[in-house]
Amino acid sequence: MTINTKDVIGDEARYVMQTYRRADIVLERGEGVYLYDAEGHRYLDFMSGIAVAALGHSHPAVTAAVAEQAATLTHVSNLYYTAPQVELAKRLVTNSFADRVFLTNSGAEAVEGALKFARKRARAQHGDGKSEIVAFSGSFHGRTLGALSVTYKAIYREPFAPLVPGVHFAPFNDLAAARALIGPATCAVIVEPVQGEGGIHPATPEFLRGLRALCDAHDVTLIFDEIQCGLGRTGRLWAYEAYGVRPDIMTLAKPLANGLPIGAILLTEDVAAAVGYGEHGSTFAGGPLVCRAAGVVFDHIARPEFLAAVAENGETLCRRLRELDSPRVLDVRGAGLLVGVDVDRPAAELIAEARANGLLIINAGETTLRLAPPLIVTREQIDDAIAILGAVLSAA
User: Fold this and answer.
1) Binding residues for pyridoxal 5'-phosphate
2) Is residue 221 in a domain?
3) Which residues are annotated as a binding site?
4) Sequence-separated (6 or more) residues with CB below 8 Å from residue 67
5) φ, ψ (nearest 5 deg) of residue 337
6) Are residues 42 and 185 in the same domain?
7) Which of these, 327, 333, 317, lies nearest to 365 by C-alpha position?
8) Same domain, 198 and 214
9) Catalytic member of 97, 120, 225, 306
10) Do the Cβ atoms of 288 and 73 come closer than 8 Å?
11) Which pTM was predicted?
12) Which range of residues forms the domain containing residue 96?
């Protein structure tokens, strides 16, 4: 089928609700770390669908698994057992802190469930009166009502107020401020070990360890949101491993099925035991098709040599960015292949110029570029991206 770029863009404007400002290209296919538009232009993809396509586009093993499962069984609902769901849950539990898993369709849905489970645990163990939640400046946890309530930016929250009550924000990486907010009325603390949308800011070890101690002291459920930074993105299987701190709940989503819609809530038995039959559910979540894909993705990413390559390539990417020595670059930071570059002008301008030169990147704030390539990226492809970005910065 021939795709006409002008027709697609025109029909989108007419028929699709206008909640996204899209780039004026129509992407048609992908292969590895490259995307191709309807006009035949090739792009080096250093955003991977917002940190989703961890194994790149059209990965042969994922494609084969999806095709085979689609020809066998796609959906039966959670009223029946299916092997792919149980096998994925087993992988996640045996390779993490968790005792149980609840599967969802998205990251926002995973956050909604995590908040709900934390409140149920508090009520089951303490009765009413322990329902407040502490979140942090710079946080982003999703756009549904509960997830939005713990997302920091007022521009996201205020148009939809009133939201979930009892949410308090402390400055990120400020343990003293968190200590002042966490107390007997707190049921949950939610934090990203590495903030994504908020500018690619890693938590300090002292901050996460201090939160763990405060949560233990007040019997508060500690939730780590690893939707963007988890499952290999930082060069470790889970971002929390770098800190030696275990949460009570962890949310996952973006890379788990390499682009198919899935999320997961990992939780301890203590939390899981507070939620009974019928108290949570999802029609589509954990279906055999998406779980089969997720199992393949997990097995690829969890290999020690794969994670070592991610860590090494992340160090190379940061080093090469610093070596540009551009006056436009104010700071480079990150973890693994999740990198933020602070620049001296609106990020949108540089993103548009990079796209025009064949490189796809995204922002993480008004003046921060975000680089999150597929985890399979090579040293040569990093060099190509640096060459394009360097030229864009020089011309800015």
Assistant:
1) 107-108, 140, 225-228, 283
2) yes
3) 107-108, 140, 143, 225-228, 282-283
4) none
5) -100, 40
6) no
7) 333
8) yes
9) 225
10) yes
11) 0.97
12) 73-301
The residue among 387, 328, 302 whose CA lies nearest residue 91 is 302
41 DSSP 8-state letter: -
Tokens of 155: 């521009």
Structure tokens at 133: 């939640």
What's the rounded Cα separation, in Å, for the pair 89 and 193?
22
To the query of whether residue 130 is one of the catalytic residues in this protein, the response is: no
Amino acid identity of residue 68, one-letter, is E
Contact (Cβ atoms closer than 8 angstroms) between residue 103 and residue 291 = yes
Report if residue 329 sits inside a domain: yes
Active site residue 225: yes
Is residue 68 one of the residues assigned to a domain?
Answer: no
- Per-residue pLDDT tens listing for the chain (396 residues): 789 999 999 999 999 999 999 999 999 999 999 999 999 999 999 999 999 999 999 999 999 999 999 999 999 999 999 999 999 999 999 999 999 999 999 999 999 999 999 999 999 999 999 999 999 999 999 999 999 999 999 999 999 999 999 999 999 999 999 999 999 999 999 999 999 999 999 999 999 999 999 999 999 999 999 999 999 999 999 999 999 999 999 999 999 999 999 999 999 999 999 999 999 999 999 999 999 999 999 999 999 999 999 999 999 999 999 999 999 999 999 999 999 999 999 999 999 999 999 999 999 999 999 999 999 999 999 999 999 999 999 997
Looking at residue 127, its amino acid is G
Residue pair 289/70 in contact by the 8 Å Cβ criterion: yes
Could you say which of 254, 298, 306, 342 is catalytic?
Answer: 254
Return binding residues for N(2)-acetyl-L-ornithine.
143, 282
| Ramachandran region, residue 149 (left: φ > 0; alpha: ψ -120 to 50; beta: rest) | alpha
Domain assignment present for residue 360? The answer is: yes
Tokens for 277, please give them. Answer: 């039959």
Q: Which of 136, 140, 207, 224 is catalytic?
A: 140
